[in-house]
Amino acid sequence: MKPMIDVQQLSKMFGTKKAVDSINLQVEKGELFCFLGPNGSGKTTTMKMMTGLLQPSSGKVQLSSIDVWANPVEAKKRIAYVPDQPNMYDKLTGNEYLRFIASVFSVKEADFQARKEKYITLFELEEALNDRIESYSHGMKQKLNLSAALLHQPDVLFLDEPTVGLDPKGAKTLRLLLRELCDEEKMTVFMTTHLLEVAAQMCDRVGIVFKGELIAVGSITELQERSGQADASLEDLFLAITADDERARTLIASLRGDSYAQKTD
Ligand SMILES: Nc1ncnc2c1ncn2[C@@H]1O[C@H](COP(=O)(O)OP(=O)(O)OP(=O)(O)O)[C@@H](O)[C@H]1O
After folding, report:
1. In this structure, how many other beta carbons lie within 10 angstroms of the beta carbon of residue 225?
2. Whose CA is nearest to atom 2 of ligand 1?
3. Which of 35, 19, 2 is nearest to 265 (CA)?
4. pLDDT digits (tens, 9 = 90+) for 97-146
5. Among the atoms of ligand 1, which is closest to the Cα of residue 161?
6. How does the average pLDDT of the chain come out, rounded?
């Protein structure tokens, strides 16, 4: 079966800087995939190219066998993207915003009502629903945006730092919801996070990107096995892999099963 997300040789240049360097990645339907990496390593740039928001310099992205750049409308019907700094229509109320997003995706009225009810209850937004978004806190906007993203039941949900701004209860609700959506509804989730504990708790597999290159991909157990460090936490592995030294190069080569020459800038 074809993977739900298929990224082939994806690269992005900003001037002379290669922000994303020939990334190849496949994510299966129903997988919860965490995309990890230090600041400035290329996570957001990669995700924007995967969602059709930023034109790649080269390479290809297919979602459910649909080429995101050759067939953008069809691809965008099937996905939702929640950025870390959402741009929302601040003068709308939460309710008006949800209705607007539902109309963009032609969600049937009954489905809209049922899903709206489910997510606003889950994220405890009922009382704020008739207030303008400009009065919402960052976390409330994040919750509203997550609710909006799920209204059309996307095949693939892209999330950039989704737990930032959420209180502990909201973050836990989101973690459980994402797991449920992947396990029961076979939604595919592709998310970035700097919270390695969160990634370790909820993801099926992680990908670690460093200086634009995808240097490790697998479940935490697979990474532990391939690195020969059965007891290492994801944080231990992450810090060792991204240390930018000789030991890191050896470790990356063993994780990838090749010889790895790290870039020197
Ligand atoms: N529009 C742009 N113009 C020029 N350079 C850019 C642009 N967007 C990103 N970059 C550069 O590309 C590199 C990757 O940035 P990106 O935002 O993808 O990193 P990131 O891994 O998401 O970082 P963070 O964890 O800090 O959010 C960085 O060096 C950044 O400065």
Report:
1. 13
2. 14
3. 19
4. 999 999 999 999 999 999 999 999 999 999 999 999 999 999 999 999 99
5. 27
6. 92
Residue 129 CA, ligand 1 centroid: distance in Å: 34
Tracing tokens 């003068």 back to the chain, one arrives at 91
Complex ipTM more than 0.90, yes or no: yes
Residue 230 alpha carbon to ligand 1 centre in Å: 33
Tokens of 230: 């059965």
Crossing angle of helices 246-256/220-227, nearest 10°? Answer: 120
Domain boundaries, the chain: 89-154
Run of H or E residues at 65: none
In a 3-state reduction of DSSP, which class is residue 113?
helix
Which residue, judged by its Cα, is nearest atom 19 of ligand 1?
40
Residue 220: both structure tokens together: 């935490």
Question: Residue with the nearest Cα to atom 26 of ligand 1?
Answer: 39
CB-count exposure of residue 101 (10 Å: 0-12, 13-18, 19+): buried
CA–CA distance from 253 to each of 22, 55, 214, 224, 228 (Å)?
17, 30, 12, 14, 12
